[in-house]
Amino acid sequence: MQTDAVFSGLQGHRGILPFEKVKDLLPEKLPCNWLLMNQDGVLSLFVVLPYGGGQYVAFDAVLPANEEVAESWRNTTTRDELIERLSGFEPRVQEIVRRFDQDEVLALGMYDRDPISQWTKNRITLLGDAAHPMLPTEGQGANMAIQDAQTLGDCLSGATHDQFPAALQDYAELRIPITREIQRKSRDRRPFDFEIPPHLTM
């Protein structure tokens, strides 16, 4: 059973570059998250993560999308367009993107899907994003996949060939209520509301 993708209204802009190129712009410890607001009251979340054993860093600039973005891993924007969109925010954020040495940056629409009630059929089952795609706002996507794998292994341990379909069904019945709740929380929890928080208004 497949459900339609649901667009969150958010767009993540992602790139990877050598740590040495931007270390003067970063705090001592990574990862770091900057919740930023420009002069127009637009909020952005800018995340920098260590990558490749610390030799590289990955950045992710989450901004409100100007329009619905196609569900694809191939969407891009130009580096200069992203720098322009980050105009008015913390200057270091623009400079990190400016030092990115490619002309195009991934610009991915952030989607999830409604929970499904059936993961398993006969000897086939789902786990991870195939079973429960969710937004990254709770930071639980990988954790849920690891727990799926652990539960699946436990259910299959000791099962005979004839018992496999029942074991797979047991696995799904254990995991669906948990992942359904995390999917809901991830959808409900937005990284920011795109409005000026009351305590920041003058």
UniProtKB/TrEMBL annotation:
Record has Nucleotide-binding as a keyword: no
GO MF annotations in UniProt: FAD binding; monooxygenase activity
Keyword DNA-binding: no
Cofactors named for this entry: FAD
Entries under Pfam families matching the protein: FAD_binding_3 (PF01494)
Keyword vocabulary terms for this entry: FAD, Flavoprotein, Monooxygenase, Oxidoreductase
Domain FAD-binding: 34-184
Family to which the UniProt record says this protein belongs: Belongs to the paxM FAD-dependent monooxygenase family.
Protein name, per record: FAD-binding domain-containing protein
Organism annotation: Aspergillus welwitschiae
Organism placement in taxonomy: Eukaryota, Fungi, Dikarya, Ascomycota, Pezizomycotina
